Amino acid sequence: MTEQIVEIDENALDAATKDLWLRVLSAVEINNHEFAIHLCQAVLKAAPGFLMARKMARRTAVAAGAGAKKKKGLFGGGGVSSMKINGWIKKNPLEALELIEKELESDPYDSNLNDGLFECACVLAMPETAAFALETIRTGAPENTKLLHKLAEFYLSRDEPASAADVYTTICKQDPTDSYALKGSKDATARASMKKDNWESKDSLASVKESAPGEDSAELEQGMTREQMDAKMAQLLGIYAQDQNNLKVVKQIGDLYEMMEDWANCHAYFSWAYELSNSDVALKDKADHAKDKLVAAQLDQLKQALAADPDNAELQAQYEAAQAESIEVTLREAQARVDSNPTDPHLRYELGLAFYNAGDFSAAIPHLQQATRNPHIRTKVLLLLAKTFREKGMRDLAIKQLEDALADLVAMDSTKKQVLYEKGLIHADMEDDINALGCFKEIYEVDYGYRDVAQRVEQSYS
């Protein structure tokens, strides 16, 4: 049976080890970092469960500049492989604990070493030390989100949801598109809230079960007030915390976040619903839609900030980079959806739109032409196809698309105005003033304030 190490505080140290610890504190006080680390190793050899000494060793290593210039350690120069560390743990976990600690002197934020310390501490039943090992990664190498996920899961396994939620927040800052972290954050927060309010009592559990929606329950009502939405969300999250695989509840949470326009959480829950549903395409579409909305909202925030500070070169660069990344991601995901379902006209339209926004007009045309088969989106497809032909300088073909669109339109609604306006612009490009003015006048007769049609029409009479 593997030996277990009891984690202790300063009061549990024997006299000799406590004397060593006091010498550590004195060395730290005069900034004698190397000697302090050496003494910490001696303390840990005598009392491997004394976490405070382990923390002090790491702190002094960082203060001494360790990691910037790696020393040759017990396992060789540079990094130590996970395989080698695991071999030491398997052979003798207590001895591995000392060897890993020695290596951390020269590289306190090394991911393999801290992961090894975590595994070793788990084997030796040292939960506080295990958490500290991965918290070190969170501090010094937060970009290693794989180990941060491991830390969050460890906290959840120990019923510490508040700590897990904090870790998920760190992950989201590193990667805002990490849907598992977004979902994990909400799940952990809900569990922490329930724990705090003692929702796990039998009475509370009974009330939650009574309020759980059945398979035949009505869907979420549209037009709820914000207060009603918040109350419903609290109820759903409480149910969800008891059963995270309840597809009905996960879908309702996603729908409610969609109504709230909380696109980050909407994407996270619909992504989870998609996995639970054995790949329901409709749920995948919902998740993708939420992600597109999230990216668009983030871009809009940057755009507004740039409008308020137009001379800010750094902000301009951020906006352009975010815009380029958004176009690239949207195009890649739209192509993947078409590859999975090439006969869907709506997906063809989305891919054509993605190519259009990317400036690849030739690539957009065949997808838009295929998308015209869907009568429900035919008008907007023809409008985009006309814009695409216009960008390529093929104005006669652009006019033909718009004429086909107008043939399907009767009422002068917003769609017809948009088509007429675009047709007028193309006629103007062609210096066909009569037909251009005719398009603008049709709009002017019913909507004086539409874009700049009033100015265009009235100038023609001057």
From TrEMBL:
Protein name (record): Tetratricopeptide repeat-containing protein
Natural source organism: Persicirhabdus sediminis
Chain spans, region Disordered: 192-220
Stretches with biased composition (Basic and acidic residues): 192-203
Source species, domain of life: Bacteria
